[in-house]
Design goal:
By secondary structure, this protein is mostly beta strands. Helix content is 2%, strand content 54%.
């Protein structure tokens, strides 16, 4: 849009990205005999983003429209990394240890002609079966739910079977900005950042999964599978939240999945 034209007042998307995401994955696993370490798998994802972005600034809405006061185009060149290792010491029912690191580049200078901040495509879910969990969990934390953009995320987890039909997992997440900003691309919290500090905070998630039919020894001719999932997440804000530092946020939910 050109300066002086109008856009709908309820259109809050001031960015138009025309870009290509290109990436690759390295993955492998290995089992060991006669060793304390019995199982190891690893994964490395690297993705690059290249394209062009049009950014608008608009004035106060007049009725159903807002005037465009500034319009500029920027080249986009950014990248992201997501890597993880799972390790087990002992037999199949031994705990599984997980370590993950994810990074999405930030934009060092928002006022120049190149945007170096990585953005996900908008089709991402950021959920997978981490560690030993038999159902999908939020890769980067249940409470914050960040997009992998301008952010370092270090995660560690421990998962273990509980009886024959259940598993429990505990995950820890550490968040730090790549570049100082006043906002963060997240789905979980809307509190602004102070633009001066980089420590975003810490999170922890507890995940419990149970296969109900097996756990309760029920034979059903109607229900083929019944799974119960319980998630509890906590987040403690870091100094990047300014006056909100050390504040806690929680999120919990349970889900019953039936397959007939």
């Amino acid at each position: 849009e050109n300066v002086g034209t109008f856009v709908p007042a309820n259109d809050i998307d001031n960015e138009d990205l025309d870009a290509v995401w290109l990436g690759g994955r390295l993955r492998g696993e290995k089992t060991f005999e006669n060793s304390g370490l019995s199982f190891l798998d690893y994964r490395l994802d690297i993705i690059g983003l290249i394209g062009e972005e049009d950014v608008l600034q608009t004035g106060v809405a007049a009725g159903a429209f807002r005037p465009v006061t500034q319009s500029r185009s920027r080249d986009v060149m950014a990248y992201a990394i997501d890597a993880g290792v799972n390790a087990r010491f002992g037999g199949e029912r031994s705990p599984l240890f997980t370590i993950n690191y994810a990074f999405g580049s930030g934009d060092e200078n928002p006022n120049d002609d190149r945007d170096e901040g990585f953005k996900q495509s908008g089709l991402h879910g950021n959920s997978s079966r981490l560690g030993l969990s038999s159902t999908g969990v939020r890769n980067y934390g249940e409470v914050l739910r960040p997009e992998l953009s301008n952010l370092h995320i270090l995660s560690a987890g421990l998962g273990m079977p509980v009886w024959d039909a259940s598993d429990v997992s505990l995950f820890y997440h550490y968040y730090r900005l790549d570049e100082d900003v006043t906002d963060l691309r997240v789905d979980g919290l809307s509190t602004p950042l102070n633009g001066q500090d980089k420590f975003v905070g810490q999170g922890a998630d507890l995940v419990l999964n149970t296969e109900l039919l097996e756990a309760l020894a029920i034979n059903s001719s109607v229900i083929d599978d019944a799974r119960l999932r319980f998630n509890l997440g906590a987040f403690k804000a870091g100094d990047a939240f300014g006056a909100g530092e050390d504040e806690y946020s929680f999120r919990t939910f349970s889900e019953l999945m039936l397959r007939f």
